[in-house]
Each structure stands twice: as C-alpha cells, then as structure tokens.
Write a structure and sequence with these properties.
This protein is mostly beta strands. The chain has a single domain (about 35-355), classed as Neuraminidase (6 Propeller). It is built from two helices and 25 strands. The strands form six sheets. Strands 6, 7, 8, 9 and 10 form a five-stranded antiparallel β-sheet that branches. A four-stranded antiparallel β-sheet has the order 1-25-24-23. Residues about 1-20 have low confidence and may be disordered.
Length: about 350
C-alpha cells in the first residue's frame, strides 16, 4: 500500500512539474479557433505545409504537406482536405519541410516548383506544380562536407532585382556549428531543364539550445526569419549580396513561449505590411508580430497578439492572403500532431486575435 501511495504521489508531482514546464500562453485569451477544414490523416507524421495558388482557378489550389518518416511522402490535398493520391509523392526518406516558389525558369519556361528537404538523404527534392513531376535529376545535395548534414527547414527566396531564386536550408543540431548554421543555394537550370543547386554561403547564428528548423522568407522585403528553438526568432537579409548580409538584423520572440519556437508564416496586408506568425508549439498558440516592425525601427518586432488554435503541438504553418473559396481573408494552414493539417480562414484568426479586418477592394 505504501508503495502504491508513493507511486501515486510521484506521478502527481511529476505531472505538475511537467505542466509547469509547458505553461499555457497567457497572452492568448480566446477560445481556440476552429478550422474550416481538417484534412484526411497522413500515414505517419505531419510536419510542414505549403500553399500553391492555382492562377487559373483558385478553387483548384493545393496544399502540400510533409509526412515525416523514413517511409515518408509529400502529400497533396485539395482545399476540401482530401488527399490527392494522384499527385502525392511517396518513397521519400524522412521529408521534413517544404516551400513553394513561382516562376523558376526551367527549359525556358516559367515554372512553379515545390522544394522539400529529404532529411536522411541530405538533399533537396524539387517537383513541378501542379503535376508534381520531379525536376531535380534525383536530388540536390546539401551541407556537403559538413558533420551535420540532416536537412530540416527550407525557405525559397526570389531576388527582386534579377529574379534569381535561392533555397535557404537549416539542419539538425547534431554537430552543427554555432555560426554558419544555415546554408544558401542558388537554384538554376543546368541547361537541360533540370534544377541544380549552387552553394552561395553559410550564415546564421545558433543558440545551441535545440535546433533551427522553421524558416520563412519575405521576398518582397528581402528578409529571412529563423526559429531558434527554445531561444527566439532571428532575422537576416535573404540576399547574399546585401551589404550587411552576414549581420543579424533582429532577435525577437525571446519571451512568452512555452518551450519551442516553431513554424513561421507571413501574412501580407499590403506593400511591406502585415504579420509574422510563430508557433508556440507546446501552448497550441501562434504569437503574432508586425511584419513592418516598429514605426522607428523596421527590425523591432514587438508582440501584437497571440491566438489559440485547435491544432495540437503545431510544428509548421503557412498562410496566404489570396481569397480562396471557403476561406475569407485568405487561408492559414497549421500542422496538428494527430497526423492532420488544419485549414483556417484568416478572418477567423484575425477576429480571435483582435486584428483589424481588411477592407475588400
């Protein structure tokens, strides 16, 4: 009996300690926002989504998400949340994060592509949209010659001055350096319509606490944001040719997170304005910061709001301000740990966070 009582007390104490470690987000006062759509579950483990807008018919737009496993996949969903088995790519070796870029010149044709990190194969895989045909000749090697080669996060940047396209890639923490944690590659046609990656630079600081996974690029403003888990969000120039390209421009979100800083997504409200959303993973909230910074400093990003969502333990997210059927104000997609992705209407997120509703033109 004494052992049983002791075991119960130990369990209670351990539970309280764990609960204190992952305290809820005190800044999120709303009831959890409900998604408009919950996708069909994937086979293994959802991680990161990307959104492709069909310019000819927005109703036929797609959400592409990773199923993170050694027997992994890029799973393609319609806006109804159903899996498009005819487009999904199977047999990937632990695909981690995915991003989409428009208008890459391949074979002289402007092509939309989805690029995913294939973590255990130490490479990127690239697929043409919307048919998801491979365009990478079998893969683009990353972190060659490095001790830490497991590719994790990816963000694609299009330089406004010349249309050059770059992939910024993060990795696991096993043996990674404190400086030069991120690698950047220029994506180019090799002359045969196949996408290749040319190493450009290593940059970015790392706290050493956990790892840097989630990345997001603001191509219009020319910045890349990185979630240094357990520490904060770091900001750099995305253009490797920028005068102070190696300098860290900002650190923000260093307080108020339960534990891990995760998925980053950027919502545009107009030229240079909008919101940066960062997943407060263990609190099931997204903390929201101004895209344009403060009035006197574009690199000062104070907390605006925090919004609770129904998605659990969200690791990755993406958002678009494009009007899509059933999603007023745009579409916000968040991974949920129950093997699904949640599709939210931006207007629902904005209302819960107390953000102003955009006037429709």
């Amino acid at each position: 009996m004494k052992r049983t009582v002791f075991a119960c007390l130990f369990t209670i104490v351990a539970t309280i300690a764990f609960a204190r470690e992952i305290m809820p987000d005190a800044d999120a006062t709303n009831v959890a926002v409900r998604p408009r759509v919950i996708t069909e579950p994937v086979k293994h483990d959802t991680d990161d989504p990307a959104i492709w807008i069909n310019p000819a018919d927005p109703a036929q737009s797609l959400v592409i998400g990773t199923d993170k496993d050694a027997d992994g996949a890029l799973v393609v969903f319609g806006l109804d949340g159903r899996i498009r088995h005819d487009l999904s790519v199977r047999g990937l070796v632990r695909p981690n994060n995915v991003d989409i870029v428009r208008g890459v010149l391949l074979g002289g044709v402007k092509t939309d592509i989805a690029v995913v990190t294939e973590r255990l194969a130490h490479r990127l895989r690239a697929y043409r949209l919307p048919d998801m045909a491979p365009v990478d000749g079998g893969g683009i090697s990353v972190f060659a010659g490095e001790r830490a080669r497991d590719a994790m996060g990816i963000a694609l940047y299009t330089r406004a001055t010349d249309g050059a396209v770059f992939a910024i890639v993060s990795r696991s923490d096993d043996g990674a350096p404190r400086r030069g944690y991120l690698h950047q590659y220029r994506l180019v046609d090799d002359g045969t319509g196949v996408l290749r990656g040319v190493f450009v630079r290593a940059f970015g600081q790392w706290s050493g606490k956990k790892e840097i996974e989630a990345l997001a690029v603001d191509s219009e403003l020319g910045y890349v944001y990185c979630s240094d888990e357990g520490y904060g969000v770091r900001k750099y120039h995305a253009d490797p040719a920028a005068e102070d390209a190696e300098d860290e421009l900002a650190e923000f979100g260093t307080a108020g997170f339960a534990r891990d800083h995760e998925g980053i997504s950027i919502y545009s409200t107009g030229p240079g304005t909008g919101y940066i959303l960062v997943s407060n993973q263990q609190a099931d909230t997204f903390r929201i910061f101004p895209r344009e910074g403060a009035a006197d400093n574009p690199h000062d990003h104070p907390l605006i709001a925090s919004v609770r969502v129904a998605a659990m333990d969200s690791d990755g997210s993406e958002v678009t301000a494009a009007e899509l059927p059933g999603f007023p104000g745009g579409l916000f997609v968040a991974m949920s740990t129950d093997r699904t992705f949640h599709f939210y209407a931006w207007d629902d997120i904005a209302a819960a966070a107390g953000l102003p509703k955009l006037a429709k033109e």
